[in-house]
Automatic annotation (TrEMBL):
Membrane topology: Peripheral membrane protein
GO cellular component terms attached to this protein's record: plasma membrane
Domain of life: Bacteria
Gene behind this protein: oppF_6
InterPro entries in the cross-refs: AAA+_ATPase (IPR003593), ABC_transp_ATP-bind (IPR050319), ABC_transporter-like_ATP-bd (IPR003439), ABC_transporter-like_CS (IPR017871), Oligopep_ABC_C (IPR013563), P-loop_NTPase (IPR027417)
The protein's name: Oligopeptide transport ATP-binding protein OppF
Amino acid sequence: MNQSPGNLLEIRDLKKTFSIATGLFSRKLTLTALEDINFNVRQGETLGIVGESGCGKSTLGRCILQLLSPDQGQVLWLGQDLTRLPAEEMRKRRADLQIIFQDPLASLNPRMTVGEIIEDPLRTLKPDLSKTERRARVVRIMESVGLLPEMINRYPHEFSGGQAQRIGIARALITEPKLIVCDEPVSALDVSIQAQILNLLAELKDEFGLTLIFISHNLSVVRHVSDRILVLYLGRIVELATGDEIYDDPKHPYTRALLTAVPIPDPKLARQRRIDALKGEIPSPINPPSGCTFRTRCRFAKPQCAEQRPPLETIENGRLVACLRWREIEIPADQEAVLGA
Ligand SMILES: Nc1ncnc2c1ncn2[C@@H]1O[C@H](COP(=O)(O)OP(=O)(O)OP(=O)(O)O)[C@@H](O)[C@H]1O
């Protein structure tokens, strides 16, 4: 056991590549989805993971749960490396680590009743429970997530998106997990329903003493629920700090850019933030830029940024940032316009 106190999960030097075939002759290329990933998740916290589409959020969530095998690195769960666990041992751990998916209806088997869907993980992960005990648990958990127990024999298509996500949450909770990876759990829902599901997750977290990893491309959503926020860009961590630090004092130019999409009431600040807005497309992870991979879209980039890959540095209050220039670009917000492009 080599776990630091208070950490439920420690991710060390994680790397994940995919081999993809392209072109007429199906030439094999390597896509690096994640590299040099190091962070901890503390017992009882909600860690938000943000970044644009394709930056590696879902791949990271799936590597943590061992739904994907990383190429290298460790996923230490209470000090035990999940990447090295034999399949049978991992099966026993599965009850502790669950996932909620983005598209609630697509993730539910249309041929199973709600009761069967929620009960299903218990059959494999808690085989000692009797049928009566399983059903009793299903009813209890349905009540916890705001579903009427009389809905137990209905089918997924009879539910709205918000209710379907409640079924997905119930299915994740039924094994009494310690950690749930929530992969864009509200992105597919109407805005009016999103807050209900976010509030439900916050309540359940307290009620069941959960630790959450909350994945979203939307910094407003992540900010709402997270204690700390990890910002990913092209498969690498560029910043990790508390929600307040990220929101009020972002250090990485990419975090600043993501913040431009977050609505703020102060028009002056909103105008200043627009300067940071993202330009261009995210580069291909098959052939990423040299040095700092964000430099091709960064308005603060200098020649040195093409030559050197910025290390993930620990700065004040233990927050982390990977930018060669973060000290120089830290200027008062009202002078930002002077910097220009
Ligand atoms: N099974 C796969 N085979 C090949 N490439 C993949 C596979 N899964 C993901 N990728 C690639 O890995 C990179 C990271 O993808 P990932 O889905 O983790 O990003 P994401 O941030 O979750 O994006 P989104 O918000 O769109 O889901 C992308 O370039 C993606 O195309």
